[in-house]
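Structure in, sequence out. Go:
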């Protein structure tokens, strides 16, 4: 049992790390908050330290803000549907005894460790390329005209790229939950004549509900800041501009630091609201 002296020593040892972490996070956040109330456009040599909430008003009332929110929600929702559905299916398949099970599991989890930029480049050039992509060769082999995914179905293409990268994460969490399921319960249901679909619906799926909720929470927090895949593939065109990408455009492309900083603060606030809402749902689910 930890004594008061050991607890004090532990606090003393972690204090430097906590201090560095707070400084690392708070200084950029405070600078962003400061610039959000200023008119700062370095390319035009303009700097007015206080203009009130003008940047916030301009960012919130722009037509691009509403469309970026809708695009972000569509993207996150599509990715979650693919990763949750595919993750449950992959977890059930990987739980079955197969030859080379360990190697198969490593190969399934491998895409999660690929950098987002590299993943987007591979999909863009190897699969979605109109001239030399694998999908184009498949279309030509079937006597069909090649389909330009990144210009004709850009939102779907990015959803597929990001879902491919996050599917291993969902699979790993759900596989752990599947392996904790009592085999005796499934065997009893099978002996009672319950079909496979009923066993999945009434036994496996309720058992996976907590793991699914945790996957949704963690993935949503990270997916709200999708950037690299959009930058590499569509560069925000064709209706793929999310809130994060809109902030980038305001800061770097428009060279309006104040407006972009206001957008960044708004994005942080919205992300925290979503995170708190999801954490409350997770807490209720874990308590039941």
């Amino acid at each position: 049992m930890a004594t008061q002296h050991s607890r004090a020593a532990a606090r003393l040892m972690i204090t430097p790390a906590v201090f560095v972490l707070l400084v690392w996070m708070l200084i950029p956040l405070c600078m962003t908050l400061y610039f959000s109330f200023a008119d700062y456009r370095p390319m035009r040599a303009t700097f007015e330290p206080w203009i009130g909430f003008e940047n916030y008003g301009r960012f919130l009332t722009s037509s691009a803000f509403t469309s970026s929110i809708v695009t972000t929600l569509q993207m996150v929702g599509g990715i979650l549907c693919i990763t949750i559905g595919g993750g449950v299916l992959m977890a059930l398949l990987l739980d079955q005894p197969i030859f080379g099970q360990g190697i198969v599991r490593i190969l399934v989890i491998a895409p999660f460790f690929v950098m987002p930029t590299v993943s987007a480049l591979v999909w863009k050039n190897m699969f979605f390329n109109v001239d030399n992509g694998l999908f184009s060769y498949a279309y030509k082999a079937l006597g069909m005209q090649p389909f330009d995914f990144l210009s004709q179905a850009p939102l779907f293409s990015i959803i597929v790229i990001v879902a491919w990268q996050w599917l291993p994460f969902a699979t790993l969490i759900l596989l752990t939950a599947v392996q904790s399921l009592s085999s005796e319960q499934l065997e009893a249901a099978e002996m009672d004549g319950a079909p496979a679909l009923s066993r999945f619906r009434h036994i496996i799926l309720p058992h996976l509900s907590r793991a699914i909720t945790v996957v949704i929470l963690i993935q949503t927090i990270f997916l709200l800041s999708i950037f690299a895949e959009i930058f590499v593939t569509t560069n925000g065109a064709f209706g793929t501009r999310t809130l994060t990408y809109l902030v980038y455009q305001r800061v770097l492309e428009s060279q309006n630091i104040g407006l972009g900083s206001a957008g960044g603060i708004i994005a942080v606030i919205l992300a925290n609201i979503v995170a708190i809402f999801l954490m409350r749902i997770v807490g209720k689910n874990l308590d039941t």
